[in-house]
Amino acid sequence: MALPKAKEDATAALLGTLQMPDCGGWCRAAREDALSRLTAMGLPHRRDEYWRFTDPASLIVPEVPKAATLGADPEPMFDQIERLRIVFVDGVFSPEQSDDLTLAGLEIERLSEAMTSDIHWARDIYGKLEVEAQSPVARPLAALNTAFASDGIVIRVTGKVEKPVSLVYLHERDDSQAILHHIVKVEAEASITILENGPAAARFNKAMEVDVADRGEFRHIRAQGRDHERRAATHLFGRLGQESVFKSFTLTVNGVMTRNECVLNLTGDDAVAHVAGAAVGDGDFHHDDTVFITHGGETCESRQVFKKVLKNGAVGVFQGKILVKDGAQKTDGYQISQALLLDETSQFLAKPELEIYADDVACSHGSTTGAIDEEALFYLRSRGVPDAEARDLLILAFLAEAIDEIDDTRIAEDLIGRLEGWLARRKDD
Amino acid sequence: MASLDTADVGVADVKEGVDQETVDQVRALSGTYKHGWNTDIEMDFAPKGLNEDIVRLISEKNGEPEWMTDWRLGAYRRWLEMREPDWSMVNYPPIDYQDQYYYAKPKSMAEKPKSLDDVDPKLLETYQKLGIPLKEQMVLAGVENAEEQAAQLDEDGEPETGGRRVAVDAVFDSVSVGTTFQAELRKAGVIFCSISEAIREHPELVRKYLGSVVPASDNYFATLNSAVFSDGSFVYVPPGVRCPMELSTYFRINAENTGQFERTLIIADKGSYVSYLEGCTAPQRDTHQLHAAVVELVALEDAEIKYSTVQNWYPGDEEGRGGIYNFVTKRADCRGDRSKVMWTQVETGSAVTWKYPSCILRGNESQGEFYSIAITNNYQQADTGTKMVHLGKNTRSRIVSKGISAGHAQNTYRGLVSMHPKATNSRNYTQCDSLLIGSECGAHTVPYIEVKNSSSRVEHEATTSKVDDDQMFYCQSRGLDEEEAVALIVNGFCKDVLQALPMEFAMEAQQLVAISLEGSVG
């Protein structure tokens, strides 16, 4: 089917500004496949059903919209945690600021190195999970990423890794664009935690493909930077083997435009997948969580918990889907998306979907939107809690269900502290 | 062991003895489609296919004024430029719109029969199968002086059919063959007639409201309907009037390859109330039949409209052959403050259902409610739900949807709840539950939630599950067989919606729920 003219033009315009990096045989083939996918499907448009709540225009215009940088965080995220630090500045790997790339229980290298070799294990993952995720819904920004990613991290986890691997994305130039692609292969019975934080660039396109083998465990906690004007489109692809565990949590504070897509495929039996997110937005803030979980194996569990606090015209979007395939019996699927609108101008748009082809399942979803509960507020006030404090208390309680999804209590406490700070800063206004 | 066996037989015997009649009845109903006969009466057909001439012909046959013909032609021209929607989760072979009849009329209408004896016996047979009482039959068949003859019958001691009275406007294929209880309704000032009659007799009302809720260019099927609708019902309830009886229409599709394009327009003026029942049956057919109806409801200040539907059109056989294609646009406009519209539907029929009864809550403090049961069995597909568009302040809406999927069927709830920035302090509660019976079927939920102000509250809940094993075990341990147990549990699952139906519909619906699921277990 021919693309509409507007789409074709937009795609050609952006592709004209991008250059495919030099790379070896396997990677070249994967990138060219991705490029032909992309030209066939075209870049997203507001009129696409999958983008009905989020206008992708600023994510695809050839000229990167400028984003001022706030500079270094005085209290860098995850600093209190012992970790292997890998730093990218505006999407470029920074060897000076990064730790030595060695850690017991895993092999780690940069994508830019892995892709120069003629043959590499990453070949079986790079772009492969992304392709699987292109149906039934097209994800052109992910294909764009596979075709043009400049760098990334390629990790093979063979044992239980003690320290988390921490990816730090610094943002220095106000017109930078970063396209990063990470590959994580968790072997059978191995486990790893990956931390990500920072705004990365004025415009950031990131994809992470995670293949978790049987009984493997993958944990992921990310904080999406504090620069107000940054834009990001991220994709997290996961393939889960038997009895594997996949847990991902995202905290988003600020950011003009964020689209986080998470596509998980539970192929083995008894796999567990939890995806959660807490987002707080003030003013010019558009945050979109799009999740697609496919249950292929039996007796799997999936959980989606997304909470958003919005004020001053901030917009929150949630598109979640649980697809239970024919034969995926005894599936337990849960999905909740909630928004707290702190004033009249904020908006929450949601499309929580279920598509179920197996009969012995328990799937549910809930979605609520509203203001702070007046009765709860009254109760707290009657107990002598001042109004502003009572409101903050209720907001934090509202976000708690999502933050509870984080297993590591130190990190959870740190994130709560940062949210308290965000609320406190807004009280002076 | 031996004594236990004897006990079992004893229980079975008692059950057989007690329930034999009921069992037979249910068997008789379920073996083939209950209303799957085909009445052989002469039809007055327009040629197959669709073009401007056909549109003009339909308009002319209905004796419509020029503005109406122009309106239809405008819709037809618009339709030619539109594309058939493909976003719903239903699959069906492409429809050849030129291979349909767009107009069919029972011939016996040409001359008025003197009494029931003169009426085409086939037609009477149809009424009997539908269970229409005798005096209603007379009026429906267009017998001269039917009211007086019916009154005569009353004096002769024909028993009343029941405590509640229902005025029926039967649509036999495309032309409304008669309207009952006209006089009594007229006394109350209520206008209840076919839409073709309303176009002739009450053009000012029709002109004002027709297409004001569902514009002629609304969607592919509604536009097609606007061009070719042959008949339908029209109701106008004047200010402050509480309609003295429930209004009802039977839609029947009778002639092969006749598309039914019904148009219903109900206007409840200030402070009035009306309850409208729509029940549908259609004879068994091998080729697919197309149905694209439009229903428009207008509720002015303080008015209330209750619209209930039981739809059990031919769903196709066990292999998915045949069955009705049902593409319906139903929308209510709560135009006045404090107006209220309540949609209740029980959807058990049709091969393909595409239907989203909606409410535009324009007036402040207006209310919209939607209660739905959609049952799909064998190869049926249903994509149904509602839209609640909150525009006015303090508006409220409630959605309760129960989807039951069995066999190879696919059942989708698709809904929209939209709170506009000005719809402050509004409230929505949505509950969609799906029940799966068998491993080959599918149940899907696609809700859209758009909240654009903070003082409103929107809550959405959905669950999907199978018939609970514990409940099944309990029922079976009490002597119900598997099928009865499923019927009982499913009826319990649907209770919230069944309770919202008017009495006579609730009974029929309950029976339908059980019958629709026959053969889905074991």
TrEMBL record, chain A:
<protein>
    <submittedName>
        <fullName>Fe-S cluster assembly protein SufD</fullName>
    </submittedName>
</protein>
<comment type="similarity">
    <text>Belongs to the iron-sulfur cluster assembly SufBD family.</text>
</comment>
<dbReference type="Pfam" id="PF01458">
    <property type="entry name" value="SUFBD_core"/>
</dbReference>
<dbReference type="Pfam" id="PF19295">
    <property type="entry name" value="SufBD_N"/>
</dbReference>
<dbReference type="InterPro" id="IPR011542">
    <property type="entry name" value="SUF_FeS_clus_asmbl_SufD"/>
</dbReference>
<dbReference type="InterPro" id="IPR045595">
    <property type="entry name" value="SufBD_N"/>
</dbReference>
<dbReference type="InterPro" id="IPR000825">
    <property type="entry name" value="SUF_FeS_clus_asmbl_SufBD_core"/>
</dbReference>
<dbReference type="InterPro" id="IPR037284">
    <property type="entry name" value="SUF_FeS_clus_asmbl_SufBD_sf"/>
</dbReference>
<dbReference type="InterPro" id="IPR055346">
    <property type="entry name" value="Fe-S_cluster_assembly_SufBD"/>
</dbReference>
<feature type="domain" description="SUF system FeS cluster assembly SufBD core">
    <location>
        <begin position="174"/>
        <end position="398"/>
    </location>
</feature>
<feature type="domain" description="SUF system FeS cluster assembly SufBD N-terminal">
    <location>
        <begin position="28"/>
        <end position="164"/>
    </location>
</feature>
<dbReference type="GO" id="GO:0016226">
    <property type="term" value="P:iron-sulfur cluster assembly"/>
</dbReference>
Automatic annotation (TrEMBL), chain B:
<dbReference type="InterPro" id="IPR010231">
    <property type="entry name" value="SUF_FeS_clus_asmbl_SufB"/>
</dbReference>
<comment type="similarity">
    <text>Belongs to the iron-sulfur cluster assembly SufBD family.</text>
</comment>
<dbReference type="InterPro" id="IPR045595">
    <property type="entry name" value="SufBD_N"/>
</dbReference>
<protein>
    <submittedName>
        <fullName>Fe-S cluster assembly protein SufB</fullName>
    </submittedName>
</protein>
<dbReference type="GO" id="GO:0016226">
    <property type="term" value="P:iron-sulfur cluster assembly"/>
</dbReference>
<feature type="domain" description="SUF system FeS cluster assembly SufBD core">
    <location>
        <begin position="251"/>
        <end position="493"/>
    </location>
</feature>
<dbReference type="InterPro" id="IPR037284">
    <property type="entry name" value="SUF_FeS_clus_asmbl_SufBD_sf"/>
</dbReference>
<dbReference type="Pfam" id="PF01458">
    <property type="entry name" value="SUFBD_core"/>
</dbReference>
<dbReference type="InterPro" id="IPR055346">
    <property type="entry name" value="Fe-S_cluster_assembly_SufBD"/>
</dbReference>
<feature type="domain" description="SUF system FeS cluster assembly SufBD N-terminal">
    <location>
        <begin position="187"/>
        <end position="242"/>
    </location>
</feature>
<dbReference type="InterPro" id="IPR000825">
    <property type="entry name" value="SUF_FeS_clus_asmbl_SufBD_core"/>
</dbReference>
<dbReference type="Pfam" id="PF19295">
    <property type="entry name" value="SufBD_N"/>
</dbReference>
